[in-house]
Amino acid sequence: MIKTLALLGATGDLAGRFLLPALAALRAADRLPDGFQVVAAAREDLDDRSFQRTATERLERHAPHVPAAARANLVRSLRYRPTEMTDPASLGSLLSGIRQPWAAYLALPPGLHTAVVTTLGSTGLPAGSRIALEKPFGENLDSAMALNRLLTQVTRTAGEQAVFRVDHVLGLPTVQNLLALRLANRILEPVWNSRHIEQIDILWEEDLGLEGRAGYFDRSGTLRDVMQNHMLQILSLIAMELPTRLDQQALRDRKLDALRSVRPLRLDEAVTRTRRARYAAGRLPDAEGGAGRAVPAYRNEDGVDAARGTETFAEIVLDLDTERWSGTRFLLRAGKALHRRRKQVTVRFRPAEHPSYSSAPANTLRIGLDGPEDIALHLTGGVSLNPPSPTPVTLAAPPPFADLTAYGRVLLELLSGGSTLSVRGDEAEAAWRVMTPVLTAWNAGMVPLEEYAAGSAGPP
């Protein structure tokens, strides 16, 4: 197990909000090896003590549920080195002075990935070391392919095993449960096909706005931020053929097959099968039932360049060219500043074939993806046969137990050498091929940029 984590970009939001809390939780669960150390690096001119104070504050804010002793133990192990990530001498000095093998986690803006990976290549990658990169992997298909070629050169003989493309959604217990739900459930798998399923909705709806992330999000947008990665990864787990053996390679091969089966939209189809929008001024919902918090229009948020036309809402309808799924629609919808938080998969079964029940509500299966949602199967039952009287019946189960956060699972797999929660290079390219015609149509202005009030259900 790797015992040294080089956290590049340690003063950023990702490190403070997710990675340090995940490491503290791993420490509390006694899942980190003896002697484990985090070497934090960023451009700021800090020393060990000042960074440790910053880390303590962030852990108090973002990980209050982790025992104080575990947080303090992690903080004591933190070391900080001011580093210029794209300077071979500066980064080389950092890495040459730490224990090998190491895992270098690039908690950095995606625009820096190519430069930093190039610098890592010039310093050399010790045997057994790994490079972790956050999504989105590239900004389009061409840049993703170029980054893959660069990583192949940098990792040399270690190959794909030395690369960990992070998509933390794969670490969510509910997402991991998608595969188990099919493997262990003899009721669902026989009807998991287009003969019985009319449509599958993958929803990633948030009730928060920009929240100070303009520096990243305004250059990304919803399609690049969550749809090209999170949501297509979920689609691949739902739509793939079940692997004949449960190992990393077989699972990733079947996911790749599913992504490659998605029929790319023609430009004229992108006009009728996609939507994009951004939020106008409004009020976000209040969990306590109050009036809610007023937010400005996205174009007026601090740090936003309105001329970019960045979307905060995206919707795409896709088809898969497989025997299992031909005739089933896959709807992907994601948005910010909506009236409720809803991250789930909704499987919509076809209406009953018997004419007496053909007008009854169709059965649905709802699978929560992130948060306290459950797994619920909504069935149309009947209380009488003459005349037919359908009555809904709901069978529900609690979400799977989560002993670690998604990032905790990702970090544990990164350090232990696993790759199940990593996106393989060909998967990333296949996902970009799905989104390329959509981006082309949007960039050409073929799909209008609509608006919706913050706190609403989205564009009308």
UniProtKB/TrEMBL annotation:
GO MF annotations, alphabetized: glucose-6-phosphate dehydrogenase activity; NADP binding
* Record-level GO BP terms: glucose metabolic process; pentose-phosphate shunt, oxidative branch
**A cellular component annotation (GO) from this entry:** cytosol
Residue spans crossing the bilayer: none
This protein's name = Glucose-6-phosphate dehydrogenase
The record's keywords, sorted A to Z, are: Carbohydrate metabolism, Glucose metabolism, NADP, Oxidoreductase
Which InterPro entries does the protein's record reference? G6P_DH, G6P_DH_C, G6P_DH_NAD-bd, NAD(P)-bd_dom_sf
Presence of the UniProt keyword Iron in the record: no
Known pathway: Carbohydrate degradation; pentose phosphate pathway; D-ribulose 5-phosphate from D-glucose 6-phosphate (oxidative stage): step 1/3
UniProt superkingdom:
Bacteria
Describe the location of the Glucose-6-phosphate dehydrogenase NAD-binding domain by residue ranges. 7-177
Q: What is any Pfam family matched here?
A: G6PD_N
Q: What NCBIfam families has UniProt attached to this entry?
A: PRK12853.1-3
User: Oxidoreductase among the record's keywords?
Assistant: yes
Q: Which residues form the Glucose-6-phosphate dehydrogenase C-terminal domain?
A: 179-459
